[in-house]
Amino acid sequence: MEVVLKELDNDEDARLADYFAVIAGTSTGGILTTMISAPNEKGRPLFAAKDTISFYFEHGPKIFPPGASPPFFAPKFDGKYLHKVLQEKLGETRLHQTLTNVIVPTFDMKNFQPTIFTKWR
Q1: Rounded Cα gap, residues 107 and 28, in angstroms
Q2: At 22, is the secondary structure helix, strand, or coil?
């Protein structure tokens, strides 16, 4: 989609965060949401949509290891590698700094309730 937007607007720097008032996703969609809406040092999106593919080829197997079998009522993945990679890529960037509004629904396993991360709160 980003490629089409670049062509339509004749803008090589066009990014999805420039066109959407809200971007949302859960699980891997939440990772993608933050990747395409987090700012770089110039105030532009840190990742182009096409960059997410190489990110998943490189880091996906360690973020979502095959054969993970959690105990009942526990997260399927421990998130340690994901936390490490996000810290490397995003540093001190926080959700309120995203370039568009974001919504990342999650489930808090400790309190057994849904939690929604947004730029609004």
Answers
A1: 14
A2: strand
Dihedral sign, CA of 113, 114, 115, 120? negative
Which region holds residue 73: left if phi is over 0, alpha if psi is between -120 and 50, else beta? left
Write the DSSP symbol of residue 117.
E
Q: Say how far apart CA 48 and CA 17 lie, in whole Å.
A: 9
**pTM recorded for the entire structure:** 0.80
* Enclosing H/E stretch for 23: strand 22-24
Exposed e or buried b for every residue in 17-36, given b needs 16+ CB within 10 A? beebeebebeeeebbbbbbb
pLDDT of the residue at 69: 63
Angle of helix 51-63 relative to helix 80-90, nearest 10 degrees? Answer: 150
Q: What is the pLDDT of residues 74-109, one digit of tens each?
A: 666 778 898 899 899 888 899 999 999 999 999 887
